[in-house]
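Q: Start with the shorter request: fold the first protein.
A: Done. Sequence, then structure:
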Amino acid sequence: MASASLQFFAFILALFGVFGDITATLLPNWKVNADVGSNIITAITQMQGLWMDCTWYSTGMFSCTLKYSVLSLPVYIQAARTTMVLSCILSAFGICITAVGMKCTKLGGDTDSKSHACFAGGVCFILAGVFGLVPTSWYTREIIANFLDQTIPESSKHEPGGAVYTGFISAGFLLIAGVIFCTSCFNKQPGAGVYPPPQHHFPSTEQESNAGYDLKDYV
């Protein structure tokens, strides 16, 4: 019962991780312009994401421009696009597989089949968490490196946006859920299956008794 409750808790974490992963992939605020120097008095907030660049004005207007050219993008943005999409796909597969393999559901067949399905879903969550953690870390590193570069003007410096933090938290949720599923699927009772129950066979005694019975019949 405790294992089923733990799996349900991991499933809720995985759901939050999936929704956060998809949200972080689509949000345009992976990095925002830094409020340093002359940028403090500006009335424009510039945001850059994986798929579009957006500008928010103090008047309330909002405009976005899609990034149509893939080859013109920096390498870390191309890698972030690929890994975040893979993370979303793997986490969605993990949700479907663990829903079948969880102990609190009536799907998936016998106990062994449900355990293997649950373990496969946990592996999907772990891979999704890794694929979500790599681009957010790389993207953050590039932002910090450009911010500390003295040759870059202050108007071109940026800070990590909300999408990066959402990606970090979602990757953590997926990793925790994957570890819980992988460790809770194959819990067995102590001593079960290790030492088979002793079996006593007395073939010689049975044969002697049968032989004696047969001789008495012929007397």
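Q: Next, the second protein, separately.
A: Sequence, then structure:
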Amino acid sequence: GSHKLSSAVCQATDRKCSATGININYSDSGLFGYAVRGTGYEMRAAVEAANKVFKETLSDIKSSDVEAAKNKLKSAYGYYAENDANLMYEIGTKGRALDLNALFQSIDQISQQDVAKFADKVKASPSTASSAGNIMNTPVLQELE
């Protein structure tokens, strides 16, 4: 799901670090960004590479990327629905099974403009950063903006 991030970080650090996208939703807010893992010595290059790709992606929303993401999302939900444990979870917590047809229709309605509008909102939102472990070579937030 985060191929661009992973590739950029692996190239910048000779495959010593990794990165992935983050998307955590709440009813009134959320957290959207990326996480980088690796050795302390390689973190500056890893975080800077991930930040560059993240900003470039937010600034250049392509129709092909939106369609690919929609297909991946539908595929993930289809896989999720095939698992009996997930079916039981859906019935136990929501009182009914997941309606894949309705879900897929909702996903298909997402447009490139919707994604671009969301990207603009992310770019306009204040940034935050968090580090743990050997952070000696990790850039601070002000260096990334």
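Q: Describe the second briefly.
A: The beta strands are 18-25, 30-37. The two ends are 24 Å apart (CA to CA).
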